[in-house]
Input
Amino acid sequence: MKKEEAILEIFRRNKGYARTGEILQAGFHNYYLDLLLKKGTIIKIKRGLYRLTSSSAGSELEEVCRIIPKGVVCLFSAWDYYELSDFVPPEYHIAIEKSHKVTLPKYPPVKLYYWSEAYWQLGITYVNIGATKVPIYEKEKSVCDAVRFSNKVGKDIEKEVLRNFLKERDRNIDKLLHFARLLRVENPIRSYLNILL
Output
């Protein structure tokens, strides 16, 4: 069927993913999505987001980025990515701007943090994971977040993240202090630097 093939082409252009809005914008009715679902050609990830069954899912983190397109990898997930902590989080830690609303699927597990725009947009960078550019906070900003949220994440994690960062050869102390000033954690960071360096 020509219409089904045209819809599948939208999926292929998007690396195996498509949103209901894209399908409707292209002039196709929901009926064809339902048909592809029944045939098992596509699977529903969450309301409004589908993936080709034949497409390799890639990493779960890639899937999370598609589920939460305006989310940024933060805290435990960022520390894990940068190898600043041995703790492997049981869920993906994602920051979103607090005015955004997100409906999460049951899987993969995600813990959302709603941050003000000023803090949310500060220090976003992108890393390539599989075929996806994943938004994540810069390493130095992530270290400052360990101090900023030490009452929630615990002093042990805070110290582990700082120690591991300071052991790195390519550590950037100036950049760390830049983010520390912006996040208002400069005094505790300087105290740690005096003790650990």
About this structure: The chain has eleven helices and eight strands. Residues 61-196 form one domain. The mean pLDDT is 86.
